[in-house]
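User: Hi! I'm working on a homework problem where we have to compare a predicted structure to a textbook description. Could you give me the structure for the chain below?
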Amino acid sequence: MSAYGDKPAPPRLRERLRGWLGLGQPSIRRDIAEALDEPAAGDGFTPQERTMLRNVLALKDMRVGDVMVPRADVVATPITATLEEVLALFRTAGHSRLPVYGDTLDDPRGMVHIRDFVDHLARAAEAQARARGVAVSGADVRLDLKAPLATAEILRPVLYAPPSMPALDLLVKMQATHTHMALVIDEYGGTDGLVSIEDVVETVVGDIEDEHDDPDAPAIERVSDGVWKMDARADLDQASAATGRDLSTPAGKEEVDTVGGLVAALAGRLPLRGEIVAGPDGLEFEVLDADQRRLKRIKATLRPAARRPRAIPADDSKPAGPPAKAAPGGEAG
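Assistant: Happy to help. Predicted structure tokens:
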């Protein structure tokens, strides 16, 4: 009997005993993960809730580099752009925030929020109407949209984070500073990418589509029998399922996750638009759209030889059939 009689030792003492015996501390995280992997009947969790809980646990090990939008996909505006150009970019990009840079994206100056942008235009219209002594609603207001963005004085600061920073730490920092955008800066001070608060939240709840997202735009589209058009960022597992071919990274090549990464790995460089690259398992890839930094659209085609059914070996034990009759013109029919 212990000093505590028949009662079990207090939790703190049990933890100390486990430490002395080299058993380590009990892990609530591990227990939850095991419970999610082996669901008990009647535990009350839906499949969606299980997925979200797993994602929450996985968020602890995620880094900023895992959730960022890569530099090639960042939509930004130079500080020398006119208000007209910024307005056009807001309309085409469908984002509410745009990073602003100096000479290049490696020289960030801040960000512009569409709400601040619209508010600036409204205040300029009001000031012009007051100067003319008329109401804004009835005034013939002519805004100077040729003015540079720098003169509007509406830039907001952005956060900066290294790609190795835990994504959860960045989320907490974003909440504390009320800033929804961070630029990912590499060890040399260059811009690696961009992270929004939505990017971090999506790692838990999945993709969040807003009013500007096109839900009908497939990453992989079957054009005809044996021909597919793909977004270069389409996942390899998704492409393998769509084509029915094994598109795993070939041995000896750097591990990649996307169709564009696979095509670049097979070519050994970034192929040019119109270039055709031989792929695995009977496929070949044609680059439909690309720029100097990345591939954008890929066409995958199943080679004719791979479409034909495999020949069935002849059975030599069976006698050969009668010779074919000569067709008109002297050729065998």
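For your comparison, note the following. DSSP finds eleven helices and twelve strands in the chain. Residues 1-5, 310-333 have pLDDT under 50 and may be disordered. Good luck with the assignment!
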